[in-house]
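DM from R.C. (forwarded with permission)

"hey, sorry to bug you on a friday — could you get me a structure for this? deadline for the figure draft is monday and I only need the backbone to look sensible"
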Amino acid sequence: MSQTRWLALDVGRGLAVLAMVVFHAIWDLSYFGYAPANLPWSPPVRIFGHTIAFAFLFIAGVALVLAHRGAMRWPAFWRRFAIIVAAAALVTAGTYVAFPKAFVFFGILHCIALASLIAVPFLLAPWPVALAGGAFFLVGAEFLSSPVFNADWLQWIGLSTSEPLTEDWRPLFPWAGALLLGVAAAKLALLVYGERAAASGHPLRTSGAKRWLPFLGRHSLIIYLAHQPALFALFFGLAYLAPPPTDTTDFVASCEARCFEDGGEGKMCHDACECTAREAINSKALAGVTDEAERGRRLNEIAQRCVETPLSSEPKSR
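My reply, with the result:
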């Protein structure tokens, strides 16, 4: 039974990994300008992302039960915990470098690590206790949220009344509830089916095309850590070779408004702003640049050249 269940679990993880890569590809398409900027925040995409996170946490809860049924295997538990904590720290460090104002301080790996500690007593209790614990975390924020938890150092709990600026936020409330529901579901399945499932179940075939799903599931952590850097590298290259289509209307209008405020004349402002937009596209000066400060610096340099070039080409007055 354990082989069949573990294999099915790896297939579930594999499907979740595929969905995660698709979700982040959608996010990257928007981030690099190949899709509408608000696409990642649209209800369907947000629901898609939440479903993926729930699946990973639920599967983590099931895996805990299967790994420790009968008795806690503490060396294996702490080894797994240390690996997840190290991976979570790597995500925090990496996103701090890439997105210092919105780095991941408590994402899904952080939640899996801490929720696994919380789950330990539930592994030793009957399944209804785990079910109640899961329900408590899932709905607890509706009754326990308070501005007291809005402090930055308390945001990981999930009881704040405002969301922090971060690339991934999976606080204990409600997300630890998904892991505890996985614990409850696995304990209930073991109680109902027991070891008889080994005799009555049919092992999942892994030959041919079906082999790669369990492979993705077995290496889900490595894929999680590596796929976004790989996608970013891909889109950086794509942005340089084939920049996304750019509508300069809004940029030119805002540029002209700033120019007028600085005392510029109508035609000069219009020509300089049109020149800036045109040169930024033709020179690919903004290709792959995602930092707003750097974008502004490069646009200012282009604008300065656009202003100076026509002046230097005019005949000097006597």
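R.C.: lifesaver. Residues 197-209, 311-318 have pLDDT under 50 and may be disordered.
me: no worries. The chain has twelve helices and no strands.
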